[in-house]
Amino acid sequence: MAKYSVLLTGILALWTPSVSGSVVARQNNNTAYLDAISEYVDSIYDDIWNISQTIHANPELGFKEVKAHDLLTSFMEAQDGWNVTRSLYNISTSFSAVFEGSGDGPVVSFNSEYDALPNLGHACGHNLIATVGLTGALATAKIMKEQDLPGKVILFGTPAEESLGGKVDMLEAGIFDDYKIDISLIAHPSNGPDTPYMRTFSTSRLDLEYYGKTAHASAAPYEGINAQDALVLAYNAIGLLRQQSQRTDQIHGIITSGGTSINVIPDLSTASFQIRAQDDADLDAWTKRILKCFDAGSVATGAELNLTMRENSYSAMLSNDILASSWSKYFVALGGTVPDAQLDRIKQQGGSTDQGNISQRFASIQPQFQIYNENGSVPTGGPHTAQFEVAAKSKKSFDKALMTAKGLAGVAVEVLTVEGMVDSVKKELEGVEGARGRKRRGVGREIRKVKGVVDDLHFH
Ligand SMILES: [Zn+2]
Ligand SMILES: [Zn+2]
């Protein structure tokens, strides 16, 4: 039987939000600084609009967001009191911008994404995510300055969210630990309703090849080893396995090549797949079952399988209830509406984000805000569609992004000003971990052996 090895990397923090706990009631109805935040954000409207439009008009793929990196860092360098570091920790298109308050205090952070999709441009609206992070951080610093507040606000430029996991690299490099962040704020555009709760899957991705042996397909087919058949068998095995999957297990993928000539037994076939599950523990179990399907193709045909797990698995997003409640308070005060929190926080998961990995380590929220076409209609397609790309550059979408950012600035200022809030927020996160009884922090590696299928699985 063919020998092959699998490298499975990615954070496997084995806890998920407890859905049984009660949603934290709003701490207070105080939105004391919201008018000042709002006024300030409106005063920088044109600058931020230009940044959003420029990023949208210049889509760049993950880790190649050179123009966006340059645009955002140049802009932040021109702001009073900000200390900007380009290409943070040698991650070329990442950056940090730090504003120090009047002394020691909570460290609130915002993340800006700015990568685009192959062939689709800014069809995930990351130009708007860049806008929200930038605006939220600036507005927070403005209040800190005015009120002479202790603490710190940091804007991180977090590249390559689409598939490559820029934030996972940043986490593993120790950036968020070294900057001692207390909370991590970000937001994402959507074609669904506004909500503080983003619910995403844990996910990992893999690429594979089957190696067979060519032979004349008519004269001597018995001399061949059919690599295409191996892949077809595996694909069908996965199809049958779906019946035994949990409702929250997913797998989807593409066959990227079979043979090249109809009269030659194919000696090479290739494919890529993405596996998703409700949390890292389920992803681990589901992945092991999927790998056996690929093994089956190899066993039946004799083709050799080479399977590579891509680096940077994503963990499910864990939303902090206290921060979610705070954002909702500000968002509603700005004229927005949010769903009932009890239902909203347990709604169906969809998609995946590398902010999930951060959220398992640091208290975080990623509100989703609905975007619109220029005429006010909601785009008929969601993220990763051409319709969404069009909506991501409309003025109405930008206005909603600013409203979202004002809400996040409200959250940040609340954490900076309300006595004990940062402790409560962190305590909630620790409680979620404790509830699952697992304290793994996603660092360090262990090697597991899975008989017959995989030689080495590296988890971290
Ligand atoms: Zn996306
Ligand atoms: Zn996205």
Automatic annotation (TrEMBL):
Keyword match Iron-sulfur: no
Keywords associated with the record: Signal
GO molecular function: dipeptidase activity
Family annotation (InterPro entries): Amidohydrolase (IPR017439), Bact_exopeptidase_dim_dom (IPR036264), Peptidase_M20 (IPR002933), Peptidase_M20/M20A_hydrolases (IPR052030), Peptidase_M20_dimer (IPR011650), Xaa-Arg_dipeptidase (IPR017144)
Pfam families the UniProt entry points to: M20_dimer, Peptidase_M20
Peptidase M20 dimerisation domain residues: 207-296
Signal peptide: 1-21
UniProt entry tagged with the keyword Signal: yes
Family, similarity comment: Belongs to the peptidase M20A family.
PANTHER family: PEPTIDASE M20 (PTHR30575), PEPTIDASE M20 DOMAIN-CONTAINING PROTEIN 2 (PTHR30575:SF4)
Name this polypeptide is given: Peptidase M20 domain-containing protein 2
Species assigned in the record: Paraphoma chrysanthemicola
